[in-house]
Amino acid sequence: MKQKIQHRALTFVALxxxxxxxxxxxxxxxxxxxxxxxxxxxxxxxxxxxxxxEFYRPANASNPPVAILINHFGNSPARVEALKQNLLSHGFAxxxxxxxxxxRLPNWGLAAASVTGAIAFAKNEPSVNHNEIFLIGASVGxxxxxxxxxxxxxxxxxxxxxxxxxxxxxxxxxxxKMDQANIFVVSDDRDANDAKAxxxxxxxHKQIKIYPGYGHxxxxxxHADVQRDIAEFLQSLAGRRxxxxxxxxxxxx
Length: 253
Fold this sequence. Notes:
Number of strands: 10
Mean pLDDT: 75
Structural class: alpha/beta
Strand order of the largest sheet: 1-2-4-3-7-8-9-10
Strand content: 15-25%
CATH superfamily of the largest domain: Alpha/Beta hydrolase fold, catalytic domain
Shape: globular
CATH architecture of the largest domain: 3-Layer(aba) Sandwich
Largest sheet: 8 strands, mixed
Low-confidence stretches: 2-7, 9-38, 241-253
């Protein structure tokens, strides 16, 4: 009798473990399904290539401006999330995607094509303002976005964080081509020379600010004052094709 009770008890425990495992697996599968079916995931094309990214719109905003971020190598999700939330909270839609390339070496041709495709996506997205498109890049992504902004007069502004030496852009690029009207160059003290080189090469309305000890590229995005200054720069440009206000012309020291 005692053995039967023990056997039934063991059988019951085994059944409970099996059921728990089934429930756990189901929940894991549910999570994976939810991640795979990301409602913010978008695909855009350029020059025969397809690129994936994520597109977010601010809540309760009608016809918002849109900022396009090319995510540079090694950028942690926390840094990108910080920038995304900052943009959304200030009424900007955000299109975020990863830089094409491998092992920290960008594919320049694909990178340039990806920006062209991302801009085309924004211009064809009915929920945003097609006349207010901004570009944001960090490290080599800053160079790529600065180059794209210089070549596309319809871009409203560029934010370049920790730009690399201008020769990073390739043999066909030169400082004389960095003539976009609106640019905010950001870096810490270690990258100050490269930041100033891009700032000096740019023409028109521009700002530069050096944050000593804040780190390189995406590391800058983890600081609240950098987030604030980026938002103020973008907001100073939103709604105006040509910026004449003092706030957009000043150089931040």
